[in-house]
Design brief:
Radius of gyration: 17 Å
Mean pLDDT: 81
Largest sheet: 7 strands, mixed
Shape: globular
Number of helices: 6
Oligomer: single chain
């Protein structure tokens, strides 16, 4: 008797949470992580004045300068390692390392600063990375229909889009489940070999 468990180890998957400055990436990961999330939040100082626009998020006092990290077990067979990207263009040089090996991404959108979504959308579209769009509903912000957001961003109708509350564990979990469905759909559409590789 070997003493080892007959249960298969869960599949570990890397995903990325992206979007503009102040869109809620750190909050999103903190709401779902089953471990104490790692973040690299730093105070917004005078150095960023004129560099990082805070229009629409004037109350924001900290920002991610490298990455956020958390872990969530979706079910006994699947564990997600979740990485959050910095939102400022001046930290975009970190993205390639953070995204390497990721199966998919959540692009968070703040409709008060919708133009901040374009860099992330362009990045993942150019690389063919599966992603879902998650519109983070902020208190006091004007609400738009998802079709209106799609039109404003010019994204493919096939890309899943959801409304979410980055503070709510259930809402975040629904977004992550939608992303995994999209990853499986894209890999299946690409052919049986890639779908089989995902399942291993």
């Amino acid at each position: 008797m070997s003493g080892r468990s007959d249960k298969a180890a869960p599949l570990a998957v890397k995903i990325v949470i992206s979007g503009g400055l102040g869109v809620g990436k750190t909050t999103f990961i903190g709401a779902i992580s089953e471990i104490e999330p790692l973040d690299t939040e730093a105070a917004i100082t005078q150095v960023s004045v004129g560099v990082d626009s805070l229009a629409g998020v004037e109350d924001k006092t900290t920002t991610t300068v490298a990455l956020d990290f958390g872990r969530i077990t979706l079910d006994p067979t699947l564990v997600l390692y979740v990485f959050g990207t910095p939102g400022q263009d001046r930290f975009s040089f970190l993205w390639d390392d953070l995204v390497e090996g990721a199966l998919g991404s959540v692009v968070l959108v703040d409709t008060r600063r919708i133009e901040d979504s374009f860099p992330a959308l362009d990045y993942f579209e150019e690389r063919g990375t599966p992603f879902v769009l998650a519109v983070n509903r902020f208190d006091g912000a004007r609400h738009f229909e998802l079709d209106e957001v799609r039109e404003a961003l010019g994204i493919d109708p096939a890309v899943p889009a959801l409304v979410c509350d980055a503070r709510g564990r259930r809402s975040v979990r629904e977004v992550l489940a939608a992303l995994m469905d999209e990853v499986v759909r894209r890999h299946t559409a690409a052919g049986p070999a890639r779908a089989g590789a995902l399942a291993r």
